[in-house]
Design a protein that fits this description.
The protein is an alpha/beta fold. Helices cover 35% and strands 18% of the residues. It has six helices and six strands; from the N terminus they run βαβαβαααβαββ. The chain has helices spanning 30-43, 57-70, 93-96, 100-107, 120-137, 149-160, and strands at residues 2-8, 50-53, 74-76, 142-147, 177-183, 186-194. It has a six-stranded mixed beta sheet, sandwiched between helices. The longest helix is centred in the middle third of the chain and has 18 residues, at 120-137.
Length: 199
């Protein structure tokens, strides 16, 4: 059995107002740095055996706080990277609401490619492939994966047997933790979107 802690990065400027995507150099804001420290504090007495993070700065900063708290190095895994939002990167949700392609994407998440970006199915495939490989590398261990909201959503959708089209039906908040165990009989989702107040 391998237990995965799927951790969304802490808060950034513009959260909930625009798509950050793979915007270079976008780090945590003051509230996010506080969230990351509080998140790390909740795990300092728990057994975590490995930490992997998205290459995005906001994820790395979240993972660094956790790594310091538990005394482990962290490793960048490109499979944990944010969705490639292509032409939509940096755009506000108000701007996007005017685009027919955005409306198509929200109607059919699973089969609509982001302009000059990726399919959510491709993000799901890379994320699940990573988890399968790490479950073999870290058997009988707990592994923290620091990533992004939609990446975590598509991973959980796979484990729960939920179509990608329905991923917006569950929330993955900043600095939240979801947990999945990989067993010989298949994966088991333990909890979803566990926030700082209930970790």
């Amino acid at each position: 059995m391998t237990r995965f802690l799927l951790i969304r990065h802490a808060a950034i400027d513009g959260l909930g107002r625009r798509i950050a995507g793979r915007t270079a150099g976008l780090g945590l804001n003051a509230a996010g740095r506080d969230q990351a420290q509080r998140l790390a504090g909740r795990f300092c007495q728990q057994a975590i055996h490995a930490i992997y993070t998205s290459p995005q700065r906001r994820a790395i900063e979240t993972a660094e706080a956790l790594a310091r708290a538990v005394g482990l190095p962290m490793e960048i895994a490109r499979e944990l990277d944010e969705i490639d939002f292509g032409d939509w990167t940096g755009k506000s949700y108000e701007e996007l609401a005017l685009l027919p392609a955005w409306r198509d994407f929200n109607a059919l998440h699973g089969s609509t490619r982001i302009p000059n970006g990726e399919l959510l199915l491709e993000a799901q495939t890379r994320m699940i492939g990573l988890m399968q490989r790490l479950s073999e590398r870290h058997a009988e261990r707990t592994v923290a994966l620091v990533s992004h909201g939609d990446v975590i959503r598509v991973a959980l959708a796979h484990q729960l047997g939920v179509p990608i089209d329905f991923i917006v039906r569950f929330e993955i908040g900043p600095a939240s933790v979801s947990a999945v165990e990989f067993h010989t009989g298949g994966p088991r989702v333990l909890w979803v979107n566990n926030g700082l107040e209930t970790i």
